[in-house]
Amino acid sequence: MQPEYLLYALIGVILGTAVGVLPGIGPAMTVALLLPLTYSLEPTASLIMFAGIYYGGMYGGSTTSILLNTPGEAASVITTVDGNAMARAGRGAAALATAAIGSFVAGTIATVALTLVAPTVAKLAVQLGPQDYVALMVVAFLTVAALLGSSPARGLASLAIGLFLGLVGTDTLTGQQRFTFGVPALADGIDVVVVAVGVFAVGEALYVASRMRRGPIPLTPVGRAGMTREDWSRSWRPWLRGTAIGFPIGTIPAGGAEVATFLSYSAERRLSKRKEQFGKGAIEGVAGPEAANNAAAAGVLVPLLTLGLPTSATAAIIIAAFQSYGIRPGPLLFQNESALVWALIASLYVGNVMLLVLNLPLARVWVKLLQIPRPYLYAGILTFAVLGSYSVNALAVDLLLLLALGVLGWLMRRYGYPIAPAIVGLILGPLAEEQLRRALAINQGDPVALVSSPFAIVAYSSIVVLLGVGVYLKRREARASAELAAAQDRHLVGEQR
User: What are the TM regions of this chain, as residue ranges (predicted)?
Assistant: First the structure.
């Protein structure tokens, strides 16, 4: 409750909402862009601000989905269906209200669940040995690579790129340089911040700018009437169901909040007594997915804080933020950095209240951000990226790396290769190598020891379960998306007739 931390929480939620509103600029890109600029802050203030950006991005994405039929970030795609239909019918204010209140309810409940679950998981995880950590890393690599992308092959290719970048530098055991190509500046490895800013910020800016439509963006009026009594009665159950769907999906690498929102929408459509309204402005189609979106955001923090495992792109960047301060997320985090962790979790409660206050009355203000000329916006992003990356080590070679990685990020986005597995491989690769060597050293080089502990056996067995669950959820998401597209096509044909 110190004024300084409250101020950083406020800055975070404002930045997060702003970037959520702007199409193509998600929380992961913003956190990556601000990483080098927060080195002067203490860790608690920096992470509180990043948490505010993370939650704010989830809130802000619904605004453009409803008023512009353009999702601000990927998890708000499904909100465009009924949210924009409500706005076109003059009920934009009601759609924005149910999205904001649903996000608040789900975010608060999910943060309570995080508060209760995380310490228990951390206490159990403290007992893990090196071979158990290796098993955890393998689970993270395979599940994230297989499930965060259009195909497992592309995900594994992206993971391989990240693992290779993580090998660049000096081997800590032998002192030999690896993949430095005779460049002295690479002896210490490629800084995670430079990679994150290059692949996410520069790559995403180039990709979005190359595809950005020209001309003015058509804006649907917000409208004046808020939620009616009937809207409240139709929204509170979807809020709770969305929370119940989103939180557990966020804790596992199953595709992130996008899967949770599609499943929530599918569930609401199946349970509704007004199925004919879906696709034409059903308020349940906004309330449920937005609640699932924010609940999944809190669920992602459970494996991140307790095991050091990211299940989304933004989580991977937040791990990079921890590491930039010499802090390793994992089981010992709750013991060694308890004040930081609980301040971070407490800031989620405060940030939820701030976001509710900011989003309900200021929707028209946020929409004005869309009037920023696109050349100015992306020129500003690239300028911040260059200045921030140079400030990390003050090396000119970092700027060349930034350019190369930016082009790599653009090519990956252009050809459908997911970015998140590359970042996960870069961050967790060196840790996995360290734990693998330690496990083999303790067991005198016996590889059987890697699969002999009870936890390792359970972890390797869970790969099949997680992949099965992930594939099932992705198929459910694809089926729901196909059914939705078919319903929209039928509705369009009916209007044309």
Answer: 6-35, 47-68, 93-121, 133-150, 156-173, 185-209, 307-327, 339-358, 378-408, 452-473
Give how far Cα 402 sits from Cα of 81, 183, 395, 405, 452, Å: 37, 16, 11, 5, 42
Instruction: Mention every residue, 6+ apart, whose C-beta is less than 8 A from residue 205.
Output: 29, 378, 381, 382, 385, 406
Instruction: Show the CA angle centred on residue 25, arms to residues 299 and 51, nearest 5°.
Output: 35
d(C-alpha 23, C-alpha 198), whole Å: 19
What is the three-class DSSP state of 169?
strand
Q: Convert the pLDDT of each residue in 331-362 to its tens digit.
A: 788 888 888 889 888 988 998 888 888 877 77
CA distance 354 to 61: 16
Residue type, 43: P
Distances (CA, A) of 160 to 129, 163, 186, 424, 428: 25, 5, 19, 10, 12
Which of the two residues, 200 and 213, has the higher pLDDT score?
200
Give the residue carrying structure tokens 């303790």: 442
What CA–CA distance (Å, rounded) separates 295 from 384?
A: 31
Within 13 A of 33's CA, how many CA atoms are on the CB side? 23
Give the integer Cα–Cα distance in Å for 173 and 475. Answer: 44
Residues 6+ away with beta carbon under 8 Å from 344: 44, 47, 48, 51, 305
Q: Is the pLDDT of residue 118 over 60?
A: yes
Which tokens go with 225?
């009437």
What are residue 424's phi and psi, to 5 degrees?
Answer: -60, -45
Burial of 444 (0-12, 13-18, 19+ CB in 10 A): exposed
d(C-alpha 104, C-alpha 116), whole Å: 18
